[in-house]
Amino acid sequence: MAPSAQRKGNVAEHEAQAYKDPGTPEEQSRRQFLANATLAVGGVIGLVLTVPLVSSLIPESLLSPEKSAGGVWADLPKSDIATLTSKPGEPVKINFNFKYADGYLPPADDTQFVWGVKLTPEQDQTFRAKRPDLFNVPSMEIKYPAVTMSFVMFSSICPHLGCRYQWVGEQKRFICPCHGSQFGVEGAKLAGPAPRGLDPLPFREKDGQAQVTWIQYKSGQADRLIVAYS
Ligand code: FES
Question: Does 178 contact ligand 1 (Cβ within 6 A)?
Fold first, then answer.
């Protein structure tokens, strides 16, 4: 055999022996330590990635009882609630501030307004009959009470194409300036191209403070599909 071929054969045999050799006890324990460390680091990385992923699939209301059906509760000005309470059946425009909480962006301040109505006893009784879209059609239902303590808070976004409608007192109806959709005081659609009635938002009273959750529903379709929470 040529010397170079002989050398190659020796090297290969030596490498094969090296793989079979279990090594000294110190080397064995070092290998075991490195294997355990690799597993531990992998586990930590997996946990770090898994917790946000899993929590993004759990409704916010379960993660934090202080949050409502997916969003955060925002305080409504006490003076507006007092006005609302003193005028049953008359809608009141209520501005409020909140922190916009997105799953991907840092919280940011936002301002919105709702149309609040304190229903009269008669409106309270007939609300369900006037708003079959909220109670009788599964794809149009909302997942929280539409009326709380006789109060309803309507999203100010027109369900047609997203303009802001106004309450026109002389006509006793909400009217959207963009394409003329009209809604009754209970939010039922009366005229125009809007595919559904107004969208009530979650409302509650906590420790004397009235609160609402801002939810944005998809415009232009009958089904109520949530596109954003506060
Ligand atoms: S956006 Fe309101 S009627 Fe079209």
Answer: yes
CB 199 within 8 A of CB 152: no
Q: What is the pTM of this model?
A: 0.70
Ligand 1 atom at minimal distance to the Cα of residue 163: 1
Residue 85, C-beta contacts closer than 8 angstroms, at least 6 positions apart: 118
DSSP secondary structure of 22-51: ---HHHHHHHHHHHHHHHHHHHHHHHHHHH
Distance CA 157, CA 114 (A): 9
Please check whether residue 198 is in contact with residue 217, taking contact to mean a CB–CB distance below 8 angstroms. no
Spatial strand order in the sheet of 92-100: 92-100, 108-118, 151-155
Tens digit of each residue's pLDDT (9 = 90 or more) over 132-179: 999 988 889 998 999 999 999 999 999 999 999 999 999 999 999 999
- Is residue 24 within 8 Å of residue 31, measured between CB atoms? no
How far is CA 186 from its chain centroid? 25
Whether 210 and 203 have beta carbons less than 8 Å apart is answered as yes
Protein residue with its CA nearest to atom 1 in ligand 1: 161
Distance 69 CA to ligand 1 centre (A): 27
Within a 10 A sphere around the Cβ of 119, how many other Cβ atoms?
A: 19
